[in-house]
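Human: Can I borrow your eye for a moment on a structure tokenisation matter? Separate attempts, laid side by side, tell us more than any discussion would. Could you pick a protein and write out its sequence and tokenised fold? No explanation is needed for now; the record alone will do.

Assistant:
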Amino acid sequence: MDIIAAISTAPGIGGIGIVRMSGEGSLKILDKMFRAKNKENSDRTKGYSLKYGEIINPETNKVIDEVLVSFFREPKSYTAEEMCEINSHGSAVVLREILDLCLKQGASLAEPGEFTKRAFLNGRIDLSQAEATADMINARTKLESRAAIHQLEGYLSKKINEIRGKAMDVLVDMEANIDYPEYDIEEVTEDRVKSDLGTIKGELEALLKSFEDGKIIKEGIKIAIIGSPNAGKSSLLNAMLKEERAIVTDVAGTTRDTIEEMITIEGIPFNMVDTAGIREADNEVEKIGIEKSKQIAEKSDVIIAMFDNSQELSVEDKEILKFIKGKKAIIVLNKSDLKSANIEEKIGKSYEKIIYISVKEEKGLEELQKYLIAMFKLNEVNLDNENIVTNIRHKKLIEKAAKSAEKAEETINTGMPIDIIAINIKDIIEDLSKITGENVSEDIVNEIFSKFCLGK
């Protein structure tokens, strides 16, 4: 493989920046531009060591920067290749100049995710662990980062390989029975195949069920805040965010478009969407905003329907109550610091929860937050003892494998020949192999790594 190089730290100014090189001969390139303070060449430097010195321009002998260089020897590196990381000051100009020197001395600019791709191709990690690396980089909450590190450490891979191994054991015995019927080989009985398939199917379905939590951990819970104008929707968003994100005025209909922001409550990401006040509007722009509000509410995981507790229910309020009926919704009665109009009696008890709040006095917000957490039971997720599927690609492949297990059971029940059942078992093995990368097309691999950042 070619020697590759890239800046591995994020764009912008920082205390330290890193230029990374990998591939056989990368240390020879380094020797042309790195002058160690102890004057020792890199061929005498052990792996897992750090050396202090200067990066110089070989053509002019000009010092570019004082640096620390990390040395890694094959196969004990991130890519399982000979590798080095140049730790310089975080100036974008300096980093670019160091990278340009690497390229002039024979390295090629790395493609997005190419270092991790080499780690996968060289067998240091499997494909699901490679994907977890990207998840770790993009994690927005502690829970999301914990889920990513759990997968990066190979817990999901281990479980997938365990299920695949069970399917392989069944297939080996079945094929022995098919290929060598004349020998005295213990037959795979129908009851045993059913039992093994039941176990495999059960474990696959448990992984599928975990995706409900995994999707929330990775993408967050989408909450639409709806209500009539001046119910306090924008004020609630600002209070939850603890910043003035949405404009708040006494003028009804201030919010014309949606405003979406993410907040974290007890490590869980919530994507909160402040919507336009729902009412009969003459203004075309406001009409578009109201229609968009309804569409977002339809697609959200939960609706917070806000009402002004100091006012009687309006025609618009009654329409909102009709709109949320049968949906996952929380009724929030705002302005509870003012004289109550007793609208709870008129709302009825057919809704999941009614919470009194006063955004102005910051009362009831903690109860609302606790209830949101309880609705999705994410405080019960134990990432130390459970495998949580967070990746949609993995979910689809596990789903296919579970359907193949179900087909195999149906095939047995209809009395089909054993070699037909074997086809379904092979499908299970093939789909699970695609998760860890033992059996995956080059196009899929390229697509996965193209989504990585440059330098990783």
